[in-house]
């Protein structure tokens, strides 16, 4: 099985059936999963809602948010499907 991974792939933003903009996903896996990578010194609670909004305005329904912090307790992985966060793992906590 081969999974196609695209880096900084442009994704069209749709609203009421019309394309209203475009942004670049950090990674796009098999045209089915948006992967967003974040690097920050500390946790930012706005990161997950940002990915949820990206999923809402595209036809893609699954997202993975990977956050790398300066310290292990500031790193996390979140799996997001459709309109909710299913799993959020904070290995350093």
The computed structural class is: mainly beta
Number of helices: 1
Helix coverage percent: 10-25%
Radius of gyration: 14 Å
Write up what this structure looks like.
This protein is mainly beta and 93 residues long. It has a domain at 32-93. Helices cover 11% and strands 55% of the residues. It has 1 helix and 6 strands; from the N terminus they run E-E-E-H-E-E-E. A 6-stranded mixed beta sheet has the order 1-2-3-4-5-6, covered by helices on one side. The longest helix is centred in the middle third of the chain and has 10 residues, at 47-56. The N and C termini lie far apart (35 Å).
Features:
93 residues; mainly beta
Blueprint of the fold:
Layout: E1 5-15, E2 18-29, E3 33-40, H1 47-56, E4 62-69, E5 76-81, E6 84-89
Parallel strand pairs: 3-4
Antiparallel strand pairs: 1-2, 2-3, 4-5, 5-6
Quick recap of the structure?
The protein is mainly beta and 93 residues long. Helices cover 11% and strands 55% of the residues. Strands 1-2-3-4-5-6 form a six-stranded mixed sheet, covered by helices on one side.
């Amino acid at each position: 099985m081969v999974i196609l991974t695209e880096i900084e792939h442009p994704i069209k933003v749709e609203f009421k059936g019309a394309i209203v903009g475009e942004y670049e996903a950090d990674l796009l896996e098999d045209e089915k999963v948006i992967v967003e990578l974040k690097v920050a010194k500390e946790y930012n609670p706005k990161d997950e809602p940002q990915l949820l909004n990206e999923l809402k305005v595209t036809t893609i329904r699954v997202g993975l948010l990977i956050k790398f912090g300066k310290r292990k307790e500031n790193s996390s992985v979140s799996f997001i499907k459709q309109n909710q966060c299913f799993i959020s793992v904070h290995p350093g906590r």
